[in-house]
Write a structure and sequence with these properties.
Oligomer: single chain
Distance between the termini: 81 Å
Keywords: Signal
Strand content: 25-35%
CATH class of the largest domain: Mainly Beta
Number of strands: 14
Order of helices and strands: HEHEEEEEEEEEEEEEH
CATH topology of the largest domain: Jelly Rolls
Radius of gyration: 23 Å
Number of helices: 3
Structural class: alpha+beta
Protein name: CUB domain-containing protein
Strand order of the largest sheet: 4-6-14-8-10
CATH architecture of the largest domain: Sandwich
Number of domains: 2
Organism: Allacma fusca
Bound molecules: 2-acetamido-2-deoxy-beta-D-glucopyranose
Shape: globular
Length: about 210
């Protein structure tokens, strides 16, 4: 007995396989299957495909990602990623990302989750930054040195009140010109604990030692 798939059988089974994968993905839609595509987008979500019932799958986890040119507000944590992350990128790039801080945010934790870029690293305090670098902005009177190199695993905390100027937005500017770079930076707002909440209008109460 010969069991051999003809080309027609093969095409048929490929189609079946694709149909099954789609069905599985439909069940796995991470957020919600919806008819309201505009509502999904305006809520910060992204349509990532279609559910088995034909409705659009709205992925709201997407709103925790941002890339070049974006400004995000109203969320506590965000991952700022390079274009095409996790793939490497290589065009010359000047890119900025803005994170609008909440009223009761007292500091922002910046975690360099996965970084590939040129340079000697933060230990060089900017001295080794040549082709690629990150610059933190948000303060009138304080500019930290640029960061570069293998920052993977490095984390830092930026306090909100530095030099009595209260920033409303933390900006990261990425200047890149090497052949291979990519980044994923997690920013988390640290908010004032509710128990000791003080009036936001009193800047003295927000003062912390840099
Ligand atoms: C880290 O970035 C590199 C280079 O872009 C990528 O190949 C790798 O998959 C990333 N690692 C993780 C855990 O995402
Ligand atoms: C970057 O640093 C991390 C943590 O120290 C290390 O695990 C990793 O291998 C380094 N990557 C490169 C490309 O040197
Ligand atoms: C970096 O980029 C160059 C040129 O595009 C490429 O030949 C090389 O393989 C890349 N290196 C890595 C580690 O991806």
């Amino acid at each position: 007995m010969r069991v051999q798939a003809t080309p027609v059988d093969l095409i048929f089974s490929v189609i079946l396989l694709v149909a099954q994968v789609l069905a599985v993905e439909g069940k796995k839609c991470p957020s919600a299957c919806t008819r309201d595509i505009t509502g999904c987008r305006s809520g910060g979500g992204k349509i990532i495909g279609y559910c088995v019932n034909g409705l659009a799958c709205c992925d709201l986890t997407y709103k925790e990602l941002a890339t070049c040119g974006e400004t995000k507000a109203g969320i506590q944590a965000i991952n700022f990623i390079s274009p095409d992350y996790p793939k490497l990128h290589s065009a010359d790039l000047i890119c900025s990302f803005g994170f609008v801080l909440m009223e009761d945010t007292i500091a922002v934790k910046i975690e360099f989750v996965n970084i590939t870029m040129d340079g000697l690293g933060f230990a060089g305090n900017g001295a080794g930054c040549d082709s690629d670098m990150f610059i933190l902005k948000g303060f009138k009177t304080w500019t930290p040195p640029p960061l570069c190199g293998n920052l993977t695993g490095y984390a830092t905390i930026v306090e909100r009140t530095i030099g009595s100027y209260r920033m409303n937005q933390l900006k990261i500017i990425a200047l890149m010109s090497s052949l291979n770079y990519s980044w994923k930076i997690k920013l988390t707002q640290i908010r004032e604990p509710k128990r000791v909440k003080r009036p936001n209008s009193d800047p003295i109460n927000m003062q912390t030692n840099p």
